[in-house]
Amino acid sequence: MPDSHKTLTQAAKEIGVSPVTLRRWLLTKKVSEVGRDRNGWRVFSKDDVARIKTYATTVTLPEEK
Q: Which of 1, 9, 54, 62 has its CA 20 to 30 A from that of 46?
């Protein structure tokens, strides 16, 4: 995987959400799908991360108890 691409876990950490939240946003089409590698795993480009980070700032996440 090129250095410019991140895994779902790496992208979630950079965006500031959990991997489960990021996966849910993708599955429910709240954010558009990203590319996949030859094995079918999602790969996030810098542009994908920036786009999803922008979306994340518009969402109110539930407060932790």
A: 62
Q: Which residues pair with 35 in a beta bridge?
A: 43
Question: Which residue, among 18, 42, 41, 20, has the nearest Cα to 32 in the 3D structure?
Answer: 42
**Stretch (H or E) spanning 35:** strand 35-36
CA–CA distance, 27 with 65 (Å, rounded to integer): 26
pLDDT tens, position by position, 7-25: 999 999 999 999 999 999 9
| Cα–Cα nearest to 11, from 38, 35, 40, 39 | 35
**Per-residue model confidence as pLDDT tens digits over 34-54:** 999 999 999 999 999 999 999
CB-neighbour burial class of residue 11 (10 A; exposed 0-12, middle 13-18, buried 19+) = buried
